[in-house]
Amino acid sequence: MSRRAKRDGKAARARSMIECVAVSTRILLAFVAAAALAGCATPPKPPVVSAPAPGPAAPAPATPSSKYYSDDGPPLAVTIDLDAVPDAVPKNEPLHRFANRPYTVLGRDYVPATAPRPYRERGVASWYGRKFHGQKTSIGEVYDMFAMTAAHPTLPLPSYARVTSVASGKSVVVRVNDRGPFLHGRVMDLSYAAAHRLGIAQKGSGEVVVEAILPTGTLAAAAPLAPVAPAAAGGAPAPELPPITEPASPEAREGFVVQLGAFSNYANAQVFLAHVQNQMAAAEVEPRVRQQRGLWRVYVGPYANRDEASRVAGRIAAAFGVATSVTAH
Questions:
Q1: Number of folded domains that form the chain
Q2: In the predicted model, is pLDDT for residue 279 greater than 50?
């Protein structure tokens, strides 16, 4: 082989090696570029955050079956000496014009007294606090949980009562200016201050004796107010009242009646009828019940004209404290 042929062979081999290196370089650059693009498309991993050390568990919220009403409770801060809050001072006050009318709550009918009358009952008292603080009571006054007040289903508004704790023997005098409670077995709702004085604020409720305080000049013959809970057999005798004779002539059947109460439930009307029949037995009137315009109405009468019915209504209201109205028969 000539020298020239040898030189040509070496040159060819050198060019082949250069081309191989170039191809390898291009492949390597393409791989690096692809890796770079893949790195840009992958989101960075979030930093690992250590969980905080567990603290004390938060107290469970009060349930409606606990010590207080749902969403209610004691004041968040007390800036007065609750033990020094004075008792309410009984005095003669005009009764509220509308808060002593018969009413129905949760399917139960209530007939408030329309005049101060003897009342004594033993039962469970509860209290209401900051949820109602600053809101209006049934007679339009602002409820103050730090004042000596209370709510009652049937005592006249406003009136006064002495409440005594059976457990502690402590007593307070409260001004009754609101309606309630309407839970079965509860006889009174006290303000937070009154409940504190009796020693039942922390427990939420307690057994008490409630006694109405009659203002000076109240007639002793006024019939006792029926207790909220079912009364035991017996009871106070009916007060004396001149007989109120019911006319028996057929013409009078188209006259006027004195309505004593109206109820949507027949059973409640019968309970009230039995109550007023016992009260008014000595007055020789016979309350009856009838259904009219979707209500069960307890009434006496009828009477020949409105004036006569109005006179009877006034005498019944004065003697028995029963709210009355005169309607056409």
A1: 2
A2: yes
